[in-house]
Amino acid sequence: MTDTLSIKAQLQTCRSKEETFKTLVTLSKTLPRLTAEEKTEDNKIKGCESAVWLIIEESHGIRHFKADSDAKLMRGVLVAILSLVEGKTLTDIQQMDLKAELAELNLSSYLTSSRTNGVLAILGKIASN
Fold first, then answer.
1. What is the domain extent for residue 48?
2. Domain holding 98: CATH number?
3. What is the pTM assigned to this prediction?
4. How many whole angstroms separate alpha carbon 104 and alpha carbon 50?
5. Exactly one of 24, 27, 48, 54 is catalytic; which is it?
6. Which is it for the CA torsion 113, 115, 119, 120, positive or negative?
7. Tally of CB atoms within 10 A around 91
């Protein structure tokens, strides 16, 4: 996966809704697909407009994430979200203002109220024990 600074820079340089959309679709291609076995009800995020699955694995206190969605745009948003939290400890993640970090990525025009609820559900699961 591309590093956080690069993703942040790519999204912040977008000057139009169309440019942001193209960037998100391009980013979506960098997210490895989950297997059918990984797309379980337990891994599914409730409250998302599209189907979204999130797997959190922890090794030596460091969190690693796998995610997928049936929607390209949401996969791009997942890449942006995961770039902020991948490889951090739960404590580090809980001390971050993830909503503010996401706001800096120019995604607001894509986060309709139903998508915002889904993103908040994703952020909630990422920051939970």
1. 4-126
2. 3.90.1010.10
3. 0.90
4. 23
5. 48
6. positive
7. 9
DSSP string, 37-89: TT--TTTBPTT-SS-EEEEEEEETTEEEEEEEESSHHHHHHHHHHHHHHTT-B
Dist. CA 81–CA 99, nearest whole Å? 10
Dist. CA 22–CA 110, nearest whole Å: 12
User: In residues, how long is the chain?
Assistant: 129
Instruction: Provide the greatest CA pair distance for the chain.
Output: 41
Looking at the DSSP assignment, which residues form a beta bridge with residue 3? Answer: none
Q: From CA 108, how far away is CA 93, in angstroms rounded?
A: 21
* Residue 86 CB burial class (10 angstroms; 0-12, 13-18, ≥19): middle
How many distinct structural domains can be found in the chain?
1
Give yes or no: 48 in active site. Answer: yes
Q: Return averaged pLDDT per consecutive 10 residues of the chain, 129 residues in all.
A: 74 89 94 97 90 96 96 93 95 93 79 78 90
